[in-house]
Every structure is written in structure tokens, then in C-alpha cells.
From TrEMBL:
Protein source organism: Nocardia aurantia
Domain Acyl-CoA oxidase/dehydrogenase middle: start-end pairs: 150-235
Protein name: Dibenzothiophene monooxygenase
Every Acyl-CoA dehydrogenase C-terminal domain range: 265-386
Pathway: Sulfur metabolism; dibenzothiophene degradation
Family named by the database record: Belongs to the DszC flavin monooxygenase family.
Keyword Zinc part of the UniProt annotation: no
Amino acid sequence: MIGERLVEDMTTPERERAERVESVLPALRDAAEEADRTGAFPPSHVALLREAGLLGLVVPEKFGGLGGSLRDLAAATFAMGTACPSTALAYFFHSTSASRGLLPLEAIDAGLFDNAEIPVVRAFAEKVLTRMADGSWLANFASESVKTSGANITIATTARKVDGGWLLNGEKSFGCATGVADYYLTSAKLEGYDTAEGLATFFVPRDAAGVAVRAPWDGLGMRATANNGIRLTDVFIADDEALGVPGAFTKMLTQSRGSFVGNQLAIAAVYTGCAQRVYDEILTATTTRTFADTGEPIASSPVHQLLFGEMTRSLETAYLWLRYQLEVETAEVPFKSKSDVFTQWRLGKGAVTEACFAVALGALKAGGTSAASMSGVIGRSLRDLAMGLVMTFPAERGMLEVARIVTEARANELFATAPAEAAR
């Protein structure tokens, strides 16, 4: 199976879950070119993934899910990345929503909440997981265009308490599955707080009053992700659809095993799957086509030999970083501290995405002018993989943060709230 090209030592249950992923790949692959051309997420993919049970891939079985782990998610996004990177990316962001359920429950078990907070936190966490298992698509909306110097993600969207719930106001500039997902799992800062302790999470129904879709996203990267973002104007969210306990967000982050909220390497698996597909495509093209004068395969020329040597090295570099990161984040007995895992990921994310982009660039050169078409795998992959150079953070930022960690024993915060004036 394709997922085994990344996760080479699958257990029997992992293989069974991977077979579900394998079953949807032909449909994803068939729709990829048209989805890219129109820049639209295929609505049929929601039902396809739901019927395969994949919307609950990483949800524990006791909540109705398939019980998969980060290994399953990485294998899934890698395999989908070989078929339709846009769908793989949107699916990744849906799957990250599970952390909003799993990590709060772990924080409860760790004794981080008092008796009054536990019922509220548990109810919200379990709602996240059961909705995913039941087939709801959750879009994970955190990122915004507002930036602060000391954090990777800055939240300016506000939540004001009113009778029976909350009023949300703000704009989310990045979030796959806009207009596709059933709910937008939205981060906002509680009124009266100016630190990450005031961050809260809300279920925002796609069609709720006050929710508007931003202008269509005409991006350089994966075009069929429905990545428009949303505007929220006095959107009312009931109390039982919110996790508004101050400090809950930061407490749950302490429970992640490694990077970010513990699943970020699965996004790099999307890019690696895309890179593997473009590598396979150009290898087939240049070994089956021959020179008219000699009859030798085009791949036998010195230039192509050099390009394939570089592409192979780049692809293997991506695999090495990704597999080791997966090992340190999923080992039953942790053998690296969370700080070390985080530091490694800041380097690894950039190393993987730049290596994957180098594969696509090499394929473009090896394919010549005939491959320089946006309707083909090589042209699309070059643009798709360009997204990895900037998404979340570029390689240069990762290296800078690691240097600060090494030399100054400090790093950027994961989340911060924006000053009040920036939210207006």
C-alpha cells in the first residue's frame, strides 16, 4: 500500500486502517486535475471520506472512531498527497481538530483542571471527538493575518460573554474547507484577557448568522483546499458549544507529545507524498521515452542522471527527517524530551518542505518544456509544493528559533493574543 512507503512497519490494525485510505485514492486522483483547474474542493470528497470512516481516523474507538494514531494520520496524508495534495491538506486540518478533544482529556487526567472546570472541559472535548467519529467535517480555524513578533500564531478574534453564550467577532485568514466543513472549530480570545490564557475554542456552524466567507483564495499553493477564510460578525455561540474556561487552551498544549499540538508532521507528509508522486511521474516519463537518434532512454543523459541523483537525495532527505520525527513523537516510551522534539521539528519542517520542493524543481528541469504545463502533475506539484515553503513558518524561521533555543534557551510562543487595537 502507498502509505507503507512512509510508515514501513505497519501493524495489522494500521494496515487495516490504511486499506480504507487506499480505497479512496482512485477517486481523489481522478478529480485532482479538475479541482486544481477550477480551484474548488470537490464536494463529493466529503461523503467519500465520511463513508470510508476516515473522518474519525484518529478518534479513539470508545468515541466511535477508528482508533488511529499519528502514524495512521501521517500514512494517510502521505498517501492522499500522492493522489490529490489539496484534499490531503484539507483532510489534515480536519484531523488536527482531534487534538482539541484528546489533549483536554489528557490535561484532565494530569490534574490540571479543578472540579468545577472538569465537567465543562470534558463535555466539550468529547463533543469534538464524537462529532468527528459521527462524520462531521471540522475545519480548524486558528491562523489570522495579524502578526506579533513573539509568537507563531496570533489570535485577534474576540469572544464576548452574553446571556447563554458568546458573541464572536474577527477574521480568520487561513483555514481549509471554508464553505465545506460542517463546523469551523474557531480560536478566539476572551474579552478582558491579553495573554494566551484567554484563548478559547468554539464550534461555529458553517451557516450560522454572521458568518461570511472571505474573497476566493487564488493561491500559489494547493488551489482546491477551499482556503478562503471567514469573517465573524456578532456570531452567537451557545455555552455548550464553547470551551471558554480561561487557561484551558494553554493547559491542553502542555500535553502534546511534540510539535505544536502534536500532529504537525502529518502536514509534511502531505508534501512528501506529493514529491513522491512527481518523482515517480518524471522517472516513468524519462525512462520510457527515448532519443530519436540513439534509441537510449532520455533518463540516460548525463544531465538527467545528475538531476535524478539530486532528486533522489532530496526525496530521501524528506523521508529521513519525517520518519525520525514520527519515531520520536510516537515511541511508546519517550526517548527525547518535549523540548528536544520541538527543537527538532523546527528544523525538520523546513528540511522536509524544501527537499520536497527541490524534487519538483528537478522534475521540471528533467521534463523540459513539455512538462511545463499547469495541467500536468509536474507543473501542479511545483506550485503545490511551494506552499510548504511558507506554511506555518519558513525554514529560515525554524532555524532562527533553534539558534535562539541553543544560544539563549528561549523560543517563540506557539500562540499569543493580539493587542486590542489590532483586533479592530
